[in-house]
Design a protein that fits this description.
The complex is a heterodimer of chains A (about 375) and B (about 725). Chain A is mainly alpha-helical and about 375 residues long. In chain A, about 70% of the residues lie in helices and about 5% in strands. Chain A contains 12 helices and 3 strands, in the order αααβββααααααααα. In chain A, strand 1 and strand 2 form a beta hairpin. Classes of the chains: A mainly alpha (about 375), B alpha+beta (about 725).
Chain lengths: ~375, ~725
C-alpha cells in the first residue's frame, strides 16, 4: 500500500483525451457560433468560454496526475456525503433548465452536482470494496452497505430528474461490484428487485415515455423526433470526408443546441465519417488503456477507481453516440471531452488526472500473467 | 475436470470480467460504426438531398417583360409595379400605427383598416390590393410587425384603349392572353432566372453568402408596324361611323400596299386594357381577323380579276343584265336594282350589278373561279402574327350547288375575314402581287439592337400587272361615278369597291340586317395606303357600303393625308395620351422624372431603365451584397420635366435598410389545426405546402412567425390524433 509510483503515467490514456479536447474547441465553435450569434450577438461567446474551460481542464489533468490518488481514499467518505448534500439541496435551490432542476448556481458558475456525485460514488464504492475485501461475500456486513450508498445516490440523481445519468452511475457501480468478490447471487437478486422500481420510475415520468415512443416512431420511419432526424441528416450530409470545418448547415438552427448532446452530428457533418470514426477510435483507445491499468495494478482501491472512471466515461461516450445516431432513444447525455459544458469537463478532467496517476502505479507491461484477486 | 475448473476460475477472475466488459463496449462501438457507415457512406446522398432541401431554396427571379412600340418607337406597352398590402393580425403589434398610415395614404376611414387588423380569427387579410407604385408614398418600405407587402409587376398600356385588341393583355402572372402579348409571348417574356438562397432552421435567409444565381434574361421588345397616329384616326373614325350609322360593330384596317405592313387595325367596340376586369368582353375581340362574314359586292374583285385575266371580258364587253330580273334556277330568281337590259363590264363593276357578275361567273366556271378566290387568299389564314384568326370558308367546286357559283361571284356562300379582303385588294393595288400581311416590324434586344426584322414577303402573282392596272382604273370609276362617290377626296385619286350584304338572321338572309363595307386605296396611280372599312348591322336607315362605309374611309384617308402630307410614311407627330401613370410617362419630347424615393434600389433601376434614363448610384459607406438598399433621395426631384434629348442622369442616394430579404410573408402557426384547415390558412397566406402524414398538424417547418418569400414551401408534419 505504501509503495510509490514506479512508472510513468500512461501517455496512451493522455493522448486520446488531449486530442478529443483539442478537437472539441473547433467542434464547439462550429456548433455554437450561430446559436451564440443569435443569443448573445457574438458568435464566439460559447467558443471563448469553452476554450478557457478546456485549458483549465488540461491544467486539472496534469495537476491531478501529480497528486497521489491514495489521498482521495481518505476523504472518500466526506466527498460522498458532500455530494449527497448537494443533490438534496438541488430540490430546494436548484436552477431549472428545460424542466429539470439539475443545476446549482454559484454566482458566475453553475454547477451540476450529478457530475460530481458520479465520481464521488465511484471513489467511495471503490474505497468500500477495498476496505471490506475480505468479507465482501457477506450480505449484511458489506454488500448491503455498499448497495445502500449506490441506490441512495442513484435515486437522488434520478429524481433531479436525470434518469439517464442515474442509470449510468448505477450500471458502473454494479459493474464494480461484479468485478469484485461479491456474490453473483446477491447481484442477481438486487437486479431483480431494482428492475420493477426502475420500470415504475420510467412509467411515472412522462418525458421518458415520450422519448421512448418518439424513438420507436423514428425507427419506424416517422418524423416526430425532429432533433434526431436533423442529427441523422447532419451525419449523412457530411458523407465520408465531411463538408469542412465551420461549414455545417445543420447547426444553423436545424439541429437544436448542436453544441451540446448532439455535437457528434456536427462533427460528422463537418469532418465526415473520417472524423466520426476517429473519435470512436479515440474513445476505444482510451477504454482499452483504462482497462489495461485495471488489469495491471496491484492496489485494490486504485483498480476499482480506474475501472469506475474508464467505465463511466465509456458509458457516456457510447450512449451519447448511440443517441446521436439513433441506435438508442434520445436522452440528454453529453459526449465526454467534446460537448460544451463546464461541470462535466471540470470533473472529467479531474477523473482523467486521477486515472493517469493510478496508471503510474501500474506495470507498463502485463507482468502478472494470472493475477488472482485478493492475492488468493 | 481439471481443465473445466481452470476455465471456470479464469472466468471468475477479474481479468476475464474486464475483458468481457471491454468486449461489450467494443460491440457497441461497432454498432455505432455500422450505423455511421450506413448513414455517412451508403445513404449519404439521400441525406445530402434532405439537408439541401431544407436549407436551400430556389427563388424565381422574374425577368422584365419586353416593351411594345409602334413603328415610330412610341412606347405602347410598358411595365410598372403594383403593391398589395396585407396583415397577419396575430403578428401585428401596432395596429393603430398601421391603420393611421393606411388611412392617410389611401384616404379612407381608419376604422375600416382597424377592424381588419384586429380580426384575430385570421392570419392573412388584405388591406389594399394592387395599388399603383405611384400612390403608395413609401409604404412599400414600411416596417411593421405583421405587415405583409407583396410586389407584382404590372403591364401599363400607355395609350389606353388604342390598339387594345391588337396589343392584347396579360394575366395576373404576366403571361400574354391575347393579341401581341399572346402571340409574342416567348419573345416578350424572357427567361426566368433564379437564386438559390440558403436559409437556417428558423427560416431566415443567411446574409453574405456565395449565392448561386442565374440572372433572368429580360424579354425582348417588339416593334409593331402600326403607326399610333393612323391607329388613332382609324379608331376614332370607326367609332364615329359605328355611332352615326347605329351599327352593331365595325372594323377598319389600314395597310401599306407596297409592303403588306399593317398601319392601323381597329375593331369597335374596344376595351381598356388597363382595366380588363371591368371591361365588356365584347370589346376584347380583334374583329378584323376573328369575325367572318359574307362580304357581298366587295368579293366581285375575284370574278372581275378572273374575267379580265382570262380574257373573258374587257372593259367594254357587253353583258346582258336581263332588265334586272334573272332566273337562275327553277325557283331562284335574282332581282337587281339596276333594270338595264345590257351593261358594259365597266358599268357592271361601277354599278355593282349582281346579275352582271352572275353572268360573268358562268363564263369563268367553278374551277377557275375557285382558283382565283384561293389565289387571293380567301379560305386560308393570312398568316398575320396575331392569335385568333378565323380563316373563313371557301367552298371547293365539288361542293358547289347549281347556284353556288353565281352567288359566290356576288359575295355570298363564302365567309371571309376583313384581313383577307384587305390582302386581296392590296394585291390589286400592288400590281397583282399578293403580299403577306404583317404587324411585327422587328424584335429588339435590351440595348435596342435588332434581333429579328420582318420584311415584305411576296406570296404569289395572282393577276398580271396589266389586269391589276385595268382593275384599278375601273375601281377609280367606282369612286368617281359609281357606288362610292362618298369616298371622293379632292386632289387625290381613290380606287375602291363597295359592298353591301344581307346578314343571316335566324338562318335566312334578312332584308333588315346588312353589312356595309368599302375597300379603297390611294393614290390610285401609285397606291400607298389601302383602307378597309366594314360596318356590321347598321340600323340608322342607310346600309349601303357606299353610303355608310365610304364616308368612314374618306375621313380616315383625309386625316392620313393631312397628317403625312406628302403621303410618305414617316415621322408622325402624335402625342401620347398618358394613362394615369406618373411613373412611366414617355411623351414626345419630354420625360417626367419618376418618384423613386423609398423604392428598393433594384425597382428604381428597373423603372429608370424603362423610361430610358441613365442613373448614377451613390452607395452608403459600408454595405454588403445582401443588404436591403432603398433610395433615400434623388436628383432631379420627382416630377421634374426634362427634355428627352438632354441625356439626363438621375442621381440616386441609397441607404441601407439593413434587412436581408424584404417583401416576405410571415408563416402563420398552424400547429394543432386539421390538415385541411392548415392548407387553407397557408395557401390563403400565399405559401406552398408539403405534407407528411395525415390528421392533425403536430409540427411545421419553418416555424410560425418566420419570414418566408411568397410561395415558399411549408412542410407540415401530421399525425392521426384520436
Amino acid at each position: 500500500m505504501n509503495e510509490t509510483a514506479k512508472h510513468k503515467i500512461d501517455i496512451w490514456i493522455l493522448i486520446p483525451v488531449l486530442l478529443l479536447l483539442f478537437f472539441s474547441i473547433g467542434a464547439v465553435y462550429s456548433a455554437s457560433s450561430s446559436f451564440a450569434q443569435d443569443k448573445f450577438s457574438d458568435p464566439n461567446f460559447l467558443f471563448r468560454q469553452h476554450t478557457l474551460r478546456v485549458l483549465f481542464g488540461i491544467i486539472l489533468i496534469f495537476a491531478f496526475a501529480k497528486i497521489d490518488y491514495r489521498l482521495i481514499q481518505k476523504y472518500s467518505k466526506y466527498l460522498i456525503w458532500l455530494s449527497i448534500v448537494l443533490l438534496v439541496y438541488i430540490f430546494f435551490g436548484g436552477v431549472g433548465m428545460k424542466g429539470a432542476s439539475r443545476w446549482i448556481s454559484l454566482g458566475l458558475l453553475s454547477f451540476q452536482p450529478s457530475d460530481f456525485a458520479k465520481y464521488t460514488l465511484i471513489i467511495y464504492v471503490a474505497a468500500l470494496l477495498a476496505r471490506k475485501k475480505d468479507y465482501l461475500h457477506m450480505l449484511y456486513k458489506s454488500y448491503l452497505v455498499i448497495v445502500f450508498y449506490i441506490l441512495f445516490v442513484c435515486t437522488l440523481v434520478a429524481f433531479q430528474p436525470n434518469f439517464s445519468v442515474s442509470m449510468i452511475i448505477l450500471s458502473t457501480s454494479f459493474l464494480m461490484l461484479f468485478l469484485s468478490e461479491v456474490k453473483l447471487k446477491h447481484l442477481v437478486f438486487t437486479g431483480l428487485i431494482i428492475l420493477p422500481f426502475a420500470v415504475l420510475f420510467v412509467l411515472s415520468k412522462s418525458y421518458i415515455m415520450n422519448r421512448l415512443s418518439s424513438h420507436s416512431e423514428y425507427t419506424s420511419g416517422g418524423n416526430s423526433n425532429y432533433q434526431l432526424m436533423q442529427a441523422i441528416i447532419g451525419f449523412g450530409n457530411g458523407g465520408i470526408t465531411g463538408i469542412g470545418p465551420g461549414n455545417s448547415v445543420q447547426r444553423d438552427f436545424y439541429l437544436p443546441e448542436a453544441y451540446g448532446d448532439f455535437i457528434f452530428s456536427i462533427v460528422g457533418e463537418e469532418y465526415g465519417f473520417i472524423g466520426t470514426s476517429l473519435i470512436i477510435c479515440m474513445f476505444a483507445l482510451f477504454m482499452f488503456r483504462g482497462y489495461r491499468v485495471v488489469k495491471n495494478i496491484q492496489d485494490d482501491f486504485g483498480r476499482y477507481v480506474a475501472f469506475g472512471i474508464t467505465t463511466v466515461l465509456s458509458f457516456y461516450a457510447v450512449i451519447n453516440m448511440c443517441v446521436a445516431t439513433g441506435v438508442m432513444p434520445t436522452t440528454g447525455v453529453p459526449l465526454p471531452f467534446i460537448s460544451y459544458g463546464g461541470t462535466a469537463l471540470f470533473f472529467n478532467s479531474i477523473a482523467i488526472g486521477i486515472l493517469l496517476n493510478i496508471s503510474s502505479f501500474a506495470s507498463q507491461k502485463s507482468e502478472v500473467k494470472e493475477f488472482k484477486f485478493a492475492n488468493a | 475436470m481439471e481443465s473445466l475448473k481452470k476455465i471456470l476460475s479464469f472466468c471468475a477472475s477479474f481479468r476475464a470480467k474486464v475483458g468481457f466488459i471491454s468486449l461489450v463496449f467494443l460491440l457497441i462501438f461497432s454498432v455505432i460504426l455500422y450505423k455511421l457507415v450506413n448513414v455517412q457512406i451508403i445513404n449519404s446522398a439521400k441525406y445530402k438531398i434532405a439537408a439541401r432541401k431544407q436549407y436551400e431554396e430556389k427563388i424565381k427571379i422574374t425577368p422584365s417583360r419586353g416593351l411594345i412600340y409602334d413603328r415610330n418607337m412610341n412606347v405602347l406597352v410598358s411595365n410598372s409595379l403594383q403593391y398589395s398590402f396585407a396583415v397577419d393580425p396575430t403578428m401585428v403589434t401596432k395596429p393603430d400605427s398601421i391603420a393611421n398610415m393606411f388611412a392617410r395614404i389611401f384616404k379612407k376611414d381608419k376604422s375600416e383598416y382597424l377592424s381588419k387588423i384586429t380580426n384575430k380569427n385570421t392570419s392573412f387579410v388584405y388591406l389594399e390590393r394592387k395599388a399603383d407604385v405611384a400612390n403608395i408614398q413609401g409604404l412599400d418600405s414600411a416596417d411593421f410587425d405583421g405587415l405583409i407587402i407583396l410586389k407584382e409587376p404590372k403591364r401599363v398600356y400607355n395609350y389606353g384603349r388604342l390598339a387594345s385588341q391588337v396589343l392584347g393583355y396579360t394575366n395576373m402572372e404576366g403571361a400574354g392572353l391575347s393579341g401581341i402579348e399572346q402571340s409574342m409571348e416567348t419573345e416578350l417574356a424572357g427567361k426566368d432566372g433564379f437564386v438559390i438562397m440558403q436559409r437556417d432552421g428558423k427560416g431566415q435567409y443567411k446574409p453574405n453568402m456565395d449565392i448561386p444565381k442565374k440572372e433572368p434574361v429580360n424579354g425582348n421588345n417588339i416593334v409593331l408596324t402600326l403607326d399610333i397616329n393612323i391607329q388613332k384616326f382609324a379608331e376614332e373614325e370607326l367609332e364615329r361611323g359605328v355611332k352615326e350609322t347605329s351599327s352593331l360593330s365595325g372594323k377598319v384596317i389600314v395597310t401599306n400596299v407596297k409592303t403588306g405592313e399593317i398601319l392601323g387595325m381597329a375593331s369597335y367596340p374596344s376595351y381598356d386594357p388597363n382595366n380588363i376586369l371591368i371591361s365588356d368582353t365584347a370589346g376584347f375581340m380583334n374583329r378584323t381577323i376573328s369575325d367572318v362574314y359574307e362580304p357581298g359586292s366587295t368579293f366581285k374583285v375575284v370574278a372581275a380579276s378572273a374575267a379580265l385575266e382570262e380574257k373573258l371580258m374587257d372593259k367594254m364587253s357587253l353583258i346582258n343584265t336581263e332588265n334586272g330580273h334573272y332566273s337562275l334556277a327553277n325557283d331562284v330568281t335574282m332581282e337587281d336594282e339596276h333594270k338595264a337590259a345590257t351593261m358594259t363590264f365597266q358599268q357592271a363593276l361601277e354599278q355593282s350589278s349582281n346579275i352582271g357578275f352572275m353572268k360573268i361567273s358562268q363564263k369563268i366556271g367553278p374551277e377557275r373561279f375557285y382558283k382565283y378566290a384561293r389565289d387571293f387568299g380567301f379560305g386560308i389564314s393570312t398568316g398575320i402574327e396575331l392569335p385568333g384568326e378565323n380563316k373563313g370558308i371557301l367552298k371547293r367546286p365539288i361542293d358547289f350547288s347549281p347556284i353556288s357559283l353565281p352567288y359566290m361571284a356576288i359575295g355570298y356562300e363564302v365567309l371571309i375575314n376583313a384581313m383577307q379582303l384587305t390582302s386581296a385588294y392590296s394585291t390589286v393595288a400592288n400590281n397583282g402581287v399578293l403580299l403577306k400581311p404583317y404587324i411585327i416590324k422587328k424584335e429588339t434586344g435590351l440595348d435596342g439592337q435588332t434581333i429579328f426584322e420582318n420584311s415584305p414577303v411576296e406570296i404569289r402573282q395572282v393577276i398580271s400587272q396589266n389586269t391589276a392596272k385595268l382593275l384599278s382604273t375601273l375601281m377609280i370609276g367606282v369612286v368617281e361615278t359609281g357606288t362610292a362617290t362618298d369616298a371622293q377626296i379632292g386632289g387625290v385619286k381613290i380606287a375602291g369597291k363597295t359592298g353591301t350584304a344581307q346578314r343571316v338572321v335566324d338562318g335566312k338572309h334578312s332584308s333588315g340586317s346588312h353589312t356595309g363595307s368599302f375597300v379603297g386605296f390611294f393614290p390610285a396611280d401609285n397606291p400607298q395606303f389601302l383602307i378597309t372599312v366594314i360596318l356590321d348591322d347598321p340600323k340608322g336607315g342607310q346600309f349601303y357600303g357606299g353610303k355608310i362605309a365610304a364616308p368612314v374611309f374618306k375621313r380616315v384617308a383625309e386625316r392620313i393625308i393631312g397628317f403625312s402630307g406628302n403621303l410618305n410614311l414617316n415621322e408622325p407627330k402624335f402625342e401620347s395620351k398618358t394613362n394615369g401613370s406618373d411613373v412611366i410617362n414617355v411623351s414626345n419630347n419630354s420625360i417626367v422624372i419618376p418618384n423613386l424615393q423609398n423604392l428598393k434600389l433594384q425597382d428604381a433601376k428597373d423603372i429608370l431603365r424603362e423610361v430610358k434614363l441613365t442613373y448614377e448610384i451613390i452607395y452608403p459607406e459600408n454595405f454588403n451584397p445582401g443588404d436591403f438598399l432603398v433610395v433615400e433621395s434623388q436628383q432631379p426631384e420627382p416630377n421634374t420635366k426634362v427634355d428627352i434629348n438632354s441625356k439626363t442622369t438621375v442621381k440616386l442616394v441609397v441607404k441601407n435598410k439593413n434587412t436581408d430579404v424584404k417583401n416576405v410573408l410571415l408563416v402563420p402557426d398552424v400547429k394543432g389545426y386539421s390538415l385541411r384547415k392548415a392548407i387553407n390558412v397557408l395557401s390563403a397566406s400565399g405559401f406552398d405546402i408539403d405534407i407528411n402524414g395525415s390528421g392533425e398538424v403536430i409540427d411545421q417547418m419553418p416555424k410560425s412567425g418566420s419570414s418566408q418569400l411568397p410561395n415558399s414551401k411549408i412542410t407540415l408534419f401530421c399525425k392521426q390524433i384520436n
